[in-house]
Fold this sequence. Notes:
The chain is of the alpha/beta class. The chain is built from seven helices and five strands. The protein has helices at 2-41, 43-56, 91-106, 120-127, 146-161, 193-202, 230-305; strands at 75-81, 113-118, 133-137, 165-177, 180-189. A five-stranded mixed sheet has the order 3-2-1-4-5, with helices on both faces. Helix 1 (2-41) runs antiparallel to helix 7, helix 2 runs antiparallel to helix 6 (193-202) and helix 2 (43-56) packs antiparallel against helix 7 (230-305). The longest helix is centred in the last third of the chain and has 76 residues, at 230-305. Residues 214-219 have low confidence and may be disordered.
Amino acid sequence: MAALKHIKSKIISVKKTATVTRAMEAVSAVKMRKSQERALSGRAYAASALSILERLSGVAEAGTHPLMKERVSGKTCIVVVTSDKGLAGSLNSAVVRATEKEIARRGLTVTDVVMAAIGRRGGDYFASRGYTIRVRQENVSDGISLEDMRTLTDQVLMWHAEGEIASCIVIYTNFISTFEQEPTVRQVVPITPSMMRALVSGIRPAKGRYAPNTGEQEARPAVYTIEPDAGSVLAELVPKLVNVAMLHTLLESKASEHSARMVAMKSATDKARDVAQELTRVFNKSRQSAITREVSEITSGIEALR
């Protein structure tokens, strides 16, 4: 009987776990749809920013603007975008592995890197390995805006203006579909038309209302007369374009996080259901054996009394 009670308690425990994971799956599904919609709806804004940048790249002053010019000396700023919470499969570990791989590919050491982290998981991981996390943002809400990202962007731009960093890359999870997310390395400083083009193409789904228009043609850079002057316009516009790029990496990461957690919780729910069914079969077998044994003992007792 003790064994039967133990199995029954395990069945109850597994079913309670399945209830929790099913609820988390439902919550993540709702958040995933909202995050996906928000990331994709920003495609038009990013595409317009790309068009502006491509046209401004034809201006002579663009080649000398600090944020659009390559530098030889200086550190590399790495912004790692992960989640604050776990239970999202291999989402965070994939970003961490991509970051370590990129650091190794560039031949960087701890002293060559200026690290910033959005999300607790990535920040904690690299802090424990000797990296100084210069900027850390945790518990980032799904409704983050351009203004909310400006704190991090302004900090990166200040490091660049002071000559401490030569470039800045963001490593995040790009949302491809509900069941597919890909760790991606994106350069945001110096900002170039090719970088913005890659960003825009990265947030386009293969089909649906946000899919690329086959009739779209790539904008051609042109030279414009700019007032008051090109330098003033670039000084105002280019930092905003960097902020746009930073925001979109976070939006993609949010959509990926909720998708990965929804899939992970669905898998956990299905597994819990299978375990509960298997335990129920074991329980029924054990109970049947116990009943058969008791009937056999009673029958044997009756026969002995006769």
